[in-house]
Amino acid sequence: MEHRLVPEHHLVLEKEEGKILNGLKVHKDQLPKIHRNDPCVQLLERKHGPIEEGRVIRIVRISETSGVSVAYRLVVGR
Amino acid sequence: MLRGVSKRIKSIKFALLSPDEIRKMSATKVITADTYDDDGFPIDMGLMDSHLGVIEPGLRCKTCGGKVDDCPGHFGHIDLAMPVIHVGYVKELKKLLMATCKNCGRLLLLDEEIRAYEREMDALDKIGGTKLDKKMMAKETARDAGKRQICPHCDTEQSKITLDKPTTFREDGHKLTPKEVRERLERIRDEDLRPMGINPDVARPEWMILTALLVPPVTVRPSITLESGDRSEDDLTHKLVDVLRINQRLRENRDAGAPQLIVEDLWELLQYHITTYFDNQTSGIPPARHRSGRPLKTLVQRLKGKEGRFRSNLSGKRVNFSARTVISPDPLLSINEVGVPVEAARELTIPLYVQAYNLEWVRELVKRGPVPEGNGYVPGVNYVIRQDGRRIRVTDKNAETVAETVDVGYVVERQLQEGDIVLFNRQPSLHRMSMMAHEVRIMSFKTFRFNLAVCPPYNADFDGDEMNLHVLQSEEARAEAKVLMRVQEHILSPRFGGPVIGAIHDHISGGFLMTHKDSKFNMEQSSRILSLVGDVKLPKPGIVEDGVEYWTGKQLFSLAIPDDLNMVFRASICQACDTCDKEDCDSDAYVKIVNGEIMSGTIDEKSIGAFNGKILDKIARNYGSDRARIFIDQATKFAIGAIMVRGFTTGIDDEDIPESEKMKIAEILQTAVDGVRTLVQAYKEGDLEQMPGRSLEETLEVEAMKKLGRARDDAGNHAGKHLGLENSAVIMARSGARGSMLNLSQMAGCVGQQAVRGERISRGYWSRTLPHFPKGDLGAEAKGFVKSCYKSGLTPTEYFFHSMGGREGLVDTAVRTSRSGYMQRRLINALEDLKVKEDRSVRNTADTIVQFKFGEDGIDPSRSVQGRAVDVDDILRDVLGAKKYATLPEERVVRKYGELEEGLEMTEEEAGKLGED
After folding, report:
1. Residue of chain B whose Cα is closest to the Cα of A58
2. Which domain holds residue B163?
3. Could you give the number of structural domains in chain A?
């Protein structure tokens, strides 16, 4: 997580999820996925406690084209 | 027309064909190898039996009663005298034989292991494992089972099974006949198959051994009747004849109780024929050949490869209303146009739908017939299609009468006419600019012609290139093509946000000659140049000398530039001096345009060239594609006019340099070569100082390369001193029209060090490159340094080294293109159905998000400025005015991406202000 090539990951609060999904006009299952055993998710788990399937992760990347870009991913099993 | 999907494919299941199933689906048993009787009728129970479908018009299928186009054909079968292995399944067969007991046929695993694997298989099914997952799983099972030496169920010791490619199995060296193999497979229990990834309900392993062979319908292997009346059979039929013959002989011999040896030989022969019937390129056996010696095209060959069913018939499509011919240039056409030969235009048609309002006009058109007379090209009509769909060919004779009958509801196929929109394409179609819409110009002669400025996007030249032309058939397609695909809409590339269409070669030399320093043209010359362009007026003369009026090139070229264009940039002849003299630049490289007038600077590649043209870029961006088209058309014509008025030529004498300079260059090179010799000497005596992180040998190489590289550059510079801007070759190199100064210095000065794999040439003979040098020679000449220049010619050893370097380059490009082509193909296949939605998110066909904002910034690269959303510099200049802007410090707009958002807001604010003003 410290490395500059690893983008910031944040856990999205459950009450915020609806707002974000509405803003993007998508259902949850249309989001890109991230595995529960992804190192970044596991690191987040250490901070927030267990993260269930179906939660949303916000990823903030430094982008060459737009400066900062925000993406969301849906946590799935494994 | 609405086509609803009534059924959806949910899954596809693959299974094996059992002999029972083969016999059930068979329309007839085939027993005789003969095809037709003496009267030419198909023989019953022969390979061409009419139960198998019909290929001759008039006959009816005996199975379904359908005629030629109604009957799809029906399968038949051959009962094989002895079982035969199916080549396609040998791998699976081997796996099965190795994993099961030779005696009891059980899987060579303990019961609990079998159950564990079965559970895992089921689990894979449940969570939706892919085919690949299952395959891996099955492989694991088989491997585990194969390890066991003694059957855990009946304690029989297992022997080693080997596969003698392609189809012979051996057990401890003894041949296993297909019959034996089949018997073993029959013994395998159903419940042992599931852990191996086989579903026994649809695929029993013994079905991989053929006892009945399916015979494809005759429609799949039609025979052709030659002009001589002889019949020629399809390759598959030939192969089936072989199979039948051997099958027959095998049966007879076996039934007659022939010696085992003979039966076995025939059996193997049958195996060979059936193997080649499936795949005639099976490794390990010679391919079956036609009488002429040509290898037969059997089942696998029909499907595989570039000419196979998949790539050429299913993924590839052929179209009508298209033409292909050689291309040639025509600088007088607009970039939007394409010259089409009359012969092609008469063949290509556009459908006209006859309505009440155009009835009279269409009748008039039909009356002209297919080859109307008249002044120049007059489009005629080839076909008329009646309401009932019948096509009537229009000829000179029937034109009048057909015209009478034309009525509302008819479709008339009109020949191509001037101004029609067509698609024009050159392969390989690597980007969207490889296929653009052009307006037709009918021309004499037999080539397609187009403006030279459109060569770069097509990557076309005229050394024999051919291109394709497609005529659009519907009004919607034409409208769409005109709006989206016209050449002028593709001047700015989506690849890098700059122009891809623009001046090349002579256009750039011409622009240079026209505008460099104070080149001027008299009345006659100016008129000649302007007359090429047409629609422009001769301005007031810029210079009057001794009562003679002259126009400066800058003045004339300015006529092509929009009147309110302001910009400043450096031309490609710019030498990047330490301090820029701006307008007073010695080489006239500081281009300044004020209100559409060139105040200083030279027009060259940086101004109007494809890829780099700054003026072109700005016009396309700010004034729209129409203005950009006009600019390209005019600017290139000005340039061509100028180059024709002045005259331009280049030859090998452009690289002439004085004898004294040659001496100097020779001296420089000799010093360098001597320098290398001293280095080598130092190395040999151990005096060479080792560079950090390098071995002594490497140090020598680096030092030598450095020294020789410098010498080459020095020689080039010395030669370059005598090649000034009055030299045609130099003009081309410096203005960016063609070639580089390096090319010139290699011609006039010294070719330089040749390299293979980035190192001086070192391989060849024993410890030397060529027998012309002593062993162990590390000097310059012995390691591929070419002292000569191309003009004076290379010595034999130099020539050889040069060829080595050149060959490496050739191989590299060949490898690179094929590899990058394949990479691109995979990328395109992966991304082809992605789409940018209204909210700028990138989604696939399932509407799931792939990227939240296209390119993360939502910017269309073809509307960006060299990939960036806004050109702050440019906007500042427009808002502040050229004067105030010029007083700003030089390096004001160096922004990193972190700051870009801030910059965006600022410029939007400014844009708002601009609007208020």
Report:
1. B852
2. 86-208
3. 1
Q: Helix %, strand %, coil % for chain B, to 5?
A: 45, 15, 40
Best mutation target among B841, B849, B895 (most A Cβ atoms within 10 Å) is: B849
Buried b (16+ CB within 10 A) or exposed e, A2-19: eeeeebebebbeeeebee
* B656 and B786 part of one domain: yes
**In-domain check, residue B391:** yes
Segment among B193-202, B333-342, B514-523 with least mean pLDDT: B193-202
Do B486 and B513 belong to one domain?
A: no
User: Nearest by CB to A26, which of B849, B855, B897?
Assistant: B849
pLDDT digits (tens, 9 = 90+) for B734-752: 999 998 888 898 998 889 8
Q: Which of B369, B378, B372, B373 is nearest to B398 (CA)?
A: B369
Domain extent for A59: 8-76
Residue-wise burial string across B128-144, b where 16 or more C-beta atoms lie within 10 A, e elsewhere: ebeeeeeeebbeebbeb
Of A25, A63, A71, the CB nearest to B839: A25
Q: Are residues B510 and B486 in the same domain?
A: no
Indicate if B639 and B656 belong to the same structural domain.
no
**Contact between chains at A24 and B852 (C-beta distance less than 8 A):** yes
| Measured CA distances, B30 to B60, B77, B224, B474 (Å) | 19, 6, 21, 51
Whether residue A66 and residue B898 make contact (CB cut-off 8 A), yes or no, is: no
pLDDT tens digits, B831-879 = 989 999 988 899 988 888 899 888 888 888 888 776 677 777 777 777 7
Distance from CA of B666 to the nearest CA of A (A): 50
Q: What does the DSSP 8-state code read for residue A28? A: G
Determine, yes or no, domain membership for A15.
yes
Residues B543, B595, single domain; the answer is: yes
Which residues of chain B have a CB within 8 Å of the CB of A29? Answer: 848
Is residue A71 included in any domain, yes or no?
yes
Residue A41 within any structural domain of the chain: yes
Domain limit, last residue, from B591, B621, B646: B646
Q: For residue B723, tell me if it sits in a domain.
A: yes
| Cβ neighbours of A71 in B, within 8 Å | 851-852
Query: How large is the ipTM?
Result: 0.91
pLDDT in tens, B64-106: 888 888 888 899 999 999 999 999 899 889 888 888 888 888 8
Residue A33 in 3-state DSSP?
strand
Residue A2 lies in a domain: no
Residue B519 in domain? yes
pTM over cut 0.90? no
Report CB contact under 8 Å: B849, A24: yes
Does B565 share its domain with B465? no
CB contact under 8 A, A67 and B859: no
The verdict on B616 and B698 lying in the same domain is no
Whether residues B857 and A26 touch (CB distance < 8 A) is answered with no
Over chain B, what is the mean pLDDT? 86
Q: How many domains does chain B contain in total?
A: 5
| Residue B29 CB coordination number (10 Å) | 15
CB atoms B900 and A26 under 8 Å? no
For residue B322, the cross-strand partners are B470
The residue from B208, B234, B267 where one domain ends is: B208
Same domain, B481 and B515: no
CATH assignment of the domain containing A37: 3.90.940.20
Mutate to test the interface with B, among A4, A65, A68, A74 (most CBs of B within 10 A): A65
Neighbours of B177 (CB within 10 A): 17
DSSP state letters, B12-46: ----PPPHHHHHHH-S-B---S--B-TTSPBPTTS
Q: Residue B510: which pLDDT band, with cuts at 50, 70 and 90?
A: very high
Q: In A, which residues are within 8 Å of B901 by CB distance?
A: 66-68
